[in-house]
Amino acid sequence: MRIVLLGAPGSGKGTQSKLIMERYQVPQISTGDLLRAAVAAGTPLGQQAKAAMDAGQLVTDDIVLGMIRERLAMPDTQQGYILDGFPRNLAQAGALDDLLKDLGKPLDVALLIDVDFESLMQRLTGRQTCASCGAVFNRYTHPTREENVCDVCGGELTHRADDNEDTIRNRLKVYEEQTRPLVQYYNERSLLKTVKGEGEIETIYKAVADVLASTRQ
Ligand code: AMP
Q1: Which terminal CB of the chain, N or C, has fewer other CB atoms within 10 Å?
Q2: Comparing C-alpha atoms, which of 119, 117, 135, 137 is closest to residue 127?
Q3: Which domains occur in the chain, in start order?
């Protein structure tokens, strides 16, 4: 199952990816996670990417495509994968199509998680991630039992550097201008499926799982 997950920042792509990954045993490939790891490790690639990320702008296509090519060459992608946060613009989508054509393994589905603007702002400003196990919480919509302590492993919760109001506004603008056109792109290729992304995580996942089950047939 080769899946592109589409949706604005804060739409729940990361959360739903993790659930799909468990169910279908395919890796989640998040370009945002790969870039944050490169920044944290201080690699040359991370140093190049950091300024754009801090400003809520897109990192250059060259950097991201290089990472994706490398990642899709790894053996754990043989049975499929979930692309989370990639592609982010039409040039990346075209490059992905070319790459997959070369590999003879086209996408199965582009799944859009559709969430209204107000909910996105609330989710992004409240988002907290566990520094130890990566579990995601939200101060407003999914609070932990004890403030700043992970419910899963007791680790410390952190706030992503780019989850502040100015950067969030930029990220949502970038989404509208550069990423939203992908909805039409995949629709024209008959790959687009949409689920509503408001409400309980489990309810949304049920809708996601139904779409994926119907895609497999
Ligand atoms: P995310 O975790 O997907 O919200 O990504 C965080 C940040 O990483 C974005 O705001 C961009 O600066 C950068 N980024 C992630 N994925 C991409 C991509 N496919 N193309 C360009 N920049 C990206």
Answers
A1: C
A2: 137
A3: 2-115+190-216 (3.40.50.300)
